[in-house]
Write a structure and sequence with these properties.
With about 290 residues, this protein is α+β, with helices and mostly antiparallel strands. It has three domains: about 90 residues, 2-Layer Sandwich (Ribosomal Protein S5, domain 2), CATH 3.30.230.10; about 45 residues, no CATH class; about 140 residues, Butyryl-CoA Dehydrogenase, subunit A, domain 3, CATH 1.20.140. The protein has eight helices and six strands. β1 and β2 form a beta hairpin. The longest helix has about 70 residues.
Length: about 290
């Protein structure tokens, strides 16, 4: 399996032997864990665990619906059986009624066949275990079909994610370029406000400069920028990993949100606020795509 791959796919497989045709259809969608639902003839229900194990070798998570059908010779295994002891009892009861009511005609076969449980349908014995090789072959073909679809969709999703990630990275770089000017501007504004508020008060200029520097530092988002860059590189590594990474990518995007929210709370400038809103929107689009990856 080539990763990343999607959890959404459809696959179909057929195998035949001894006049029978086995058909397996798989439909899978995204799910937090691996959830397999199987529909198949009741007499073959013993194969369910084997089917789940086979699917578990190809899926680490996702909701997978499996439909198993069989057709051809010998698939109708029901046979009609006459319950002769019960038929005798019915006949005796009918004769007793006839004598008691002085009826002229004796019980007929037409009357007896309609009596309950005189003729019943029973399932003929079959060596069910012999059916597994053909069922397994059909299942393997269906899984191979889903694998191709999942890998193709996963590759398309990867391209989409990398493109959006590049745009997000550019937005981070734009904010980073504005940080020195923003911090300096914030410091000047704070200094002006303090000077106005403390007009006529003899205040040590050094102390004033220190306080302004401390307040301006609270608007510095350099740490958040550094962490976001680290998250972006980690995101790319996860996408390139030869293993399922959907859960880790989803968790990492939560950290993207955390850093963006911190930046938005530190910087109150309108332009930056608009940029952080757009960044959140872009991360949400990334999450929508990531949640379909295994």
């Amino acid at each position: 399996m080539n990763y990343p791959c999607s959890m959404t796919a459809f696959g179909r497989g057929e195998a035949s032997a001894n006049g029978r045709v086995w058909t397996v259809e798989l439909r899978s969608v995204n799910h937090r864990y691996l959830d397999v639902k199987i529909k198949m003839p009741r007499k073959y229900a013993g194969f369910e665990e084997q089917i789940k194990r086979e699917i578990g070798t190809c899926y680490s998570r996702g909701h997978v619906d499996v439909m198993v059908t069989v057709s051809g010779e010998g698939t109708d295994s029901l046979k009609l059986v006459a319950n002769l002891p019960l038929a005798h009892e019915y006949q005796q009861c009918l004769n007793a009624i006839r004598h008691e009511l002085h009826l002229p005609d004796p019980p007929t076969l037409a009357m007896l066949k309609d009596c309950r449980d005189v003729i019943t349908a029973v399932e003929a014995p079959e060596d069910v275990e012999n059916a597994w090789p053909e069922l397994a072959e059909a299942l393997k073909m269906a899984l191979e079909s889903t694998r191709c679809m999942r890998e193709a969709e996963g590759e398309a999703t990867k391209v989409e994610l990398l493109g959006r990630l590049a745009g997000f990275e550019a937005a981070v770089a734009a904010i980073e370029a504005e940080i020195p000017g923003l911090v300096a501007n914030r410091g000047e504004k704070l200094k002006e406000r303090l000077t106005t508020l403390l007009a006529g008060v003899n205040l040590d200029p050094v102390r004033l400069a220190q306080e302004v520097a401390v307040m301006a530092d609270k608007s510095d988002v350099t740490e958040e920028i550094v962490r976001l860059r680290s998250h972006i590189e980690q995101f790319r590594r996860f996408l390139a990993a030869p293993e399922p990474a959907g859960r880790r990518l989803d968790f990492l995007l939560q950290e993207f949100f955390r850093e963006i929210n911190t930046m938005a709370s530190k910087i109150s400038e309108v332009t930056i606020s608009h940029q952080t809103v757009e960044m959140k929107n872009e991360v949400e689009k990334l999450r929508e795509q990531v949640q379909n990856l295994e």
